[in-house]
Amino acid sequence: MRKNTSRNVYVIGGGIAGLSSACFLSKAGFQVTLIEKNSQLGGRATTLTQNGFVFDKGPSWYWMPDIIEKFFNHFDKTTNDFYNLKRLAPSYQLIFEDKITIAPSANLDELKQQFEELEAGSSKKLEQFLAQAKMKYDLGMNDFVYKPGLSIKEYGHFDLLRKASRLNIIGSHAKHIRQFFSHPVILKMLEFPILFLGGSSDSIPALYSMMNYADMVLGTWYPMGGMHQLIKAQEQIARSLGVNIHTNESVTHITVSNKKATHIHTNRAIYPLDILVGSADYHHIEQELLGSEHRKYDTRYWSKRKMAPSALIFYIGINTTLANLLHHNLFFDADFLKHNQSIYQSKQWPEDPLFYLCCPSKTDDSIAPPNCENLFILIPVACDLQDKQDMEEYYFKKIVQRIQQHTGTDISKHLVYKAIYGPNDFIKDYNSFQGNAYGLANTLKQTAFGKPSIVNKKVQNMFYAGQLTVPGPGIPPTIISGEIIANHITKIYT
Length: 494
Ligand SMILES: Cc1cc2nc3c(=O)[nH]c(=O)nc-3n(C[C@H](O)[C@H](O)[C@H](O)COP(=O)(O)OP(=O)(O)OC[C@H]3O[C@@H](n4cnc5c(N)ncnc54)[C@H](O)[C@@H]3O)c2cc1C
Hints:
Blueprint: E1 8-12, H1 16-27, E2 31-35, E3 47-50, E4 53-56, H2 65-74, E5 85-87, E6 93-95, E7 101-102, H3 108-118, H4 122-142, H5 158-166, H6 173-178, H7 184-191, H8 210-218, E8 221-223, H9 228-240, E9 244-246, E10 251-257, E11 260-266, E12 270-272, E13 275-278, H10 282-289, H11 299-303, E14 310-318, E15 328-331, H12 336-344, E16 355-358, E17 373-381, H13 391-407, E18 415-421, H14 423-430, E19 462-464, H15 475-493
Parallel strand pairs: 1-2, 1-13, 2-9, 6-15, 13-19
Antiparallel strand pairs: 3-4, 5-8, 6-7, 10-11, 11-12, 14-17, 14-18, 15-16, 16-17
Helix pairs in contact: 1-9, 1-15, 2-15, 3-4, 4-8
The structure holds flavin-adenine dinucleotide (FAD).
Residues 12-18, 35-38, 43-45, 58-61, 63, 250-251, 279-280, 284, 311, 313, 378, 430-431, 437-438, 466-467, 473-475, 478 line the site of flavin-adenine dinucleotide.
């Protein structure tokens, strides 16, 4: 492998962004060492293996396969070199009260038909809506998203402004979709992908209708073997490029001298360095590893950030199969507004939550024993909540009941394995700020140069990657985050 610099780079954190940074930096010729506190790589995208069940602990929606493909192509690989990607059809189902369900088709003509059945004239409007959403996707994912976000000027060039002014980008997503549709089921279908962005549809800019394009046109995919196949692929590429990987090692302090990071201290050693990339939670690196005089942001800044939700998750293995479930199931059979308010306004545990149930064993035999189901159940909750003593049983009973209503099976009678994971676990495992699962909410003020910066002028050889900086949370953006930081460092140092 060509090494065009003798400079060494330490990357803190072996999540998707850290692995991506390490791959790109190593390809650019730096000597890269990645330090990960946990025993597994992947960060929020690690796995839990118990009683023959392999649970993906975090991400389960594989969207924007083009971005992930691009990552592999940078290293002269394709997705097929690592895993078999399957498109899910239908993409998912939404389950409403009164046993109403809708499973959006992966076929666009069929999807239009589904829209038309709900609201007369909406199939034509869907075409127009998706044509605009495609333009936003092309603009967002080919242009906006690769910007380092260091200045507003990056977004001010004529062509970009011209394209942006033709599209509704800045108004709210909620308002935008209501200009096209009015049926409540259609609105929920279009609002659900926004939940990934950590806000309600009225607080997220209409730019993100590109997520509807990603959902309805580009599709929902699944890597056979589980989402962690992506992490294995990233690790394989990193190792093949010569990245030195240390697991079970925690960075505890960064020494700075003359505005330069000179060493990182871990629970095992002290390493001298030339360049540092912090890809663990931004807040942890800045506020807990750097001395106060070297921080770009203060506690007031952090207390004003609007966070995307945390999550309460159940990993459940059962010794029976369930009827009426798809791979992805959104139980919207409770009050959407009330649940949303509990996350963003009152910041309380929701009384009657919506939840998401992923049943990947519907697609993949390798992640559960025969005639069993692998269930991942996620309730989005506010950040910074204290774990409630009786929470586990309270929510477990509720979801068991709702799953029984829909599938006819009482899963509590078939349990082989059950584990619960809450906001405090995110703090313990990933040093997550306020126990966040998905980083910062993608509100207008926290988009692009409104996010915590990839650079810190007080520590000139230190850079940031990961879901709390540009471009934001999610698998595709955190992969891109690694590319952005590697390009930025390469520009400065080579
Ligand atoms: C429950 C859940 C569901 C999700 N679902 C989806 C989905 O379906 N689709 C999607 O696209 N995205 C999804 N996401 C978002 C996506 O998983 C994340 O945006 C992405 O994985 C974040 O990657 P990262 O590298 O920025 O951070 P992390 O994954 O947090 O990686 C940071 C790493 O740094 C390590 N670290 C922390 N402190 C230290 C230290 N002091 N020393 C050394 N190492 C340290 C951590 O252990 C961790 O491994 C989901 C996230 C969660 C939590």
